[in-house]
Q: What sequence folds into this?
């Protein structure tokens, strides 16, 4: 069991929840890591905790205070892009990009993995139906893997991104098959009590759900 | 001036203080980043703040709470190695290694740089008279540079480690030449009010001072 000890980055969204269920299904010993980084959609933290609890896996919440702004997700004065087409969404880096976010998340995951002797770090990043963030792409994850090889104490820790080349529809199907509590996942960026339906994250998610509906 | 906007990682020790003075001397526009990560030698934070204030450069203190242990610097129950010879110090990774520390520090520096449009990140890492930490070596810094190239929003941000191949004696000489307030710097790991004189960090520092004394 110890050989499959893993850190799972869990935001509370569909992708990371599916990644957690996938890892658990494959027999990995999961230690969930959740970040409270001042995101306006704090609701996702609640989702992440519920998901981890339901699956009965241990979790840690790390609180990060970024004293600088620079993202629509952490600065209420910056507007979240809405009602964009899917081709617009993945074209440029949007205002919702949080500077250095995945580098920070993975560096904490690396620290946690080294501290408890975990051998894997799972991340739900994907680059097909995604928001255009540079730190979600395979070349970023490969570079982080190389960083571990070059500068960690445990150079054998492996990054796993099982969703990296899946469409949102494929992820949704996978989630259903794995029994992910999809109703508990939270994707919306806007910070309301109910999903706004018009932010990039809602649009990508809803498109997959509507295709799925048509097929059923 | 904006083209030379830089983030400087400042621990409050001799190396990072010298790096800050070096950057300032070379005309870089310095934004200092200080970390409060639960280190037992909290005294270094006070030193870092004093040094930044004296040089009249803006600084930010980022508080990091690592919920996991795994280092003598963050866990009072783990003993700090003492009275080791210099050849023992650099041989293995010591108990004072903090899992993922420089990866975390650099990831915050990257975030800060992207948020304020800084083009350089200065770090005082060096591998000659050092504590044997894997995340202080040139190959680690090169891998982090590559990570920025592959996954940051601003792929042009450059990591600078001007002390990387200098001996502690060379750094001390450099510090004196640059007018670093050496008396304000703090290197001791032990967390006391005065330097213990026997931890790895004190031993490396004191050796340089004693050679310097003999020469004067």
A:
């Amino acid at each position: 069991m110890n050989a499959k000890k893993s850190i799972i980055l869990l935001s509370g969204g569909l992708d990371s929840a599916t990644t957690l269920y996938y890892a658990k299904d494959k027999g990995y010993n999961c230690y969930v890591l959740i970040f409270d980084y001042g995101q306006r959609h704090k609701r996702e933290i609640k989702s992440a905790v519920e998901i981890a609890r339901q699956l009965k896996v241990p979790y840690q919440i790390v609180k990060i205070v970024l004293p600088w702004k620079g993202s629509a997700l952490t600065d209420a004065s910056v507007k979240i892009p809405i009602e964009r087409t899917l081709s617009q969404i993945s074209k440029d880096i949007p205002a919702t990009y949080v500077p250095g976010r995945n580098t920070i998340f993975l560096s904490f995951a690396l620290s946690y993995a080294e501290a408890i002797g975990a051998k894997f770090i799972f991340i739900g990043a994907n680059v097909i139906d995604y928001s255009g963030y540079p730190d979600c792409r395979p070349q970023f994850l490969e570079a982080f893997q190389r960083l571990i090889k070059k500068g960690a104490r445990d150079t054998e820790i492996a990054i796993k991104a099982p969703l990296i080349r899946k469409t949102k529809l494929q992820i949704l199907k996978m989630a259903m098959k794995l029994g992910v509590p999809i109703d508990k996942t939270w994707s919306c960026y806007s910070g309301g009590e109910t999903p706004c339906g018009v932010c990039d994250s809602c649009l990508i998610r809803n498109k997959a759900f509507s295709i799925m509906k048509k097929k059923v």
About this structure: Chain A has a mean pLDDT of 94. The CA atoms of residues 106 and 118 of chain A lie 13 Å apart.
